[in-house]
Amino acid sequence: MKLAICICTHQRPAGLLRLLKSLETLAGQVQFAIFVVDNHQDAEGLKVIEEIQKSGYSVAIQGEQVLDGGISQARNHVLQMAINANAQFVAFIDDDEWPEASWLDELMRVQAIDDADAVGGPTKAVFEADISNAFASCPYYGADLNLPDNAICELQACGNVLLKLQTIAKLGQPYFDPALGQSGGEDLKFFMRLKAAGLNMRWAAQATVFETVPPSRSTLKWLKHRVALIANTRVHIMQQLQPGLLSTALRWIKTLALGSQAASYQMLALIRPDAQFNAQLYSAKFNGKIRAHFGQRLARGENH
């Protein structure tokens, strides 16, 4: 099998159904099968698979349930499913996303240029609620490195990525850290390991997927928690990957500098209301980092 498309799903049956229908339209571009892991006890995703197969779905699809370990275990399990199926490549996409028609072609085209070990592409946020310009331009929605096509890059997320399994399998298990199953950041650490191993990561500028943002996620409360969580998790990961007195001191210096920036934005927001949005985000980022320095680990409040 040339390619396995891997999906982790958690209480998003409508999103999974939309994704599976969109993937069916890509059949013929490259030979692929679909593997799905549902990590919720109700297994709504597996029911979606059962129903879509009854309707004559034209792509081979296999679903399994994994209840322990949060998103990390789900990613590990679905990746192992692809490895067991002897796939050459695996493409990760999330259950709240759907691809453009050229998605697979673009990922595979860029991979072939320099035989890349990993290729990522942009994720564009699609908001379901009316939002302000501040939310629309916020980089914490979607994911886009804004790099030229085939540029060398440092990938960070698994929502839109192609992996060469021959080299990925050499990293050793677990591929995604189980300790990050409830907080997220398991994909960030995964790509940091790829970088440390000297693997070749590239950017496919036209391999676009879209990510729906429900009204519940287009609020300042949700966004502040997301910003704090990302910052908190990044510090914890760096503490593991870069231990030692000097590295710790540098992280503290950066965090304290961030705190100074947050305070400056808060002062500016007193006279410029338009600065309030960024002031809130800088404060949330500082809060997440400083809590990590004191050993506190934030959680997403959801498995996926």
Task: Note down, in words, how this protein is organized.
There is one protein chain. The protein has 304 residues and is α/β, with parallel strands linked by helices. The protein has 2 domains: 215 residues, Spore Coat Polysaccharide Biosynthesis Protein SpsA, Chain A; 74 residues. Helices cover 45% and strands 16% of the residues. The protein is built from 10 helices and 11 strands. It has an 8-stranded mixed β-sheet, with helices on both faces. A 3-stranded mixed β-sheet has the order 5-11-7. Helix 1 runs parallel beside helix 2, helix 8 packs parallel to helix 10 and helix 9 runs antiparallel to helix 10. It starts with a strand and ends in an 11-residue tail after the last helix.
Q: Output the helix-strand order.
A: EHEHEHEEHEEHEEHHEEHHH
CATH topology of the largest domain: Spore Coat Polysaccharide Biosynthesis Protein SpsA, Chain A
What structural category characterises the helix and strand content?
Answer: alpha/beta
Q: Widest sheet: strand order?
A: 3-2-1-4-9-6-10-8
Q: What is the average of the pLDDT values?
A: 93
Shape: globular
Unreliable stretches: none
User: How large is the share of residues in beta strands?
Assistant: 15-25%
Q: What's the architecture of the largest domain in CATH terms? A: Alpha-Beta Complex
CATH superfamily descriptor of the largest domain: Spore Coat Polysaccharide Biosynthesis Protein SpsA, Chain A
Helical coverage, percent range: 40-55%
Number of strands: 11
Number of domains: 2
Specify the CATH class of the largest domain: Alpha Beta
Radius of gyration, in angstroms, nearest whole number: 20 Å
Main pleated-sheet profile:
8 strands, mixed
Distance between the termini: 28 Å
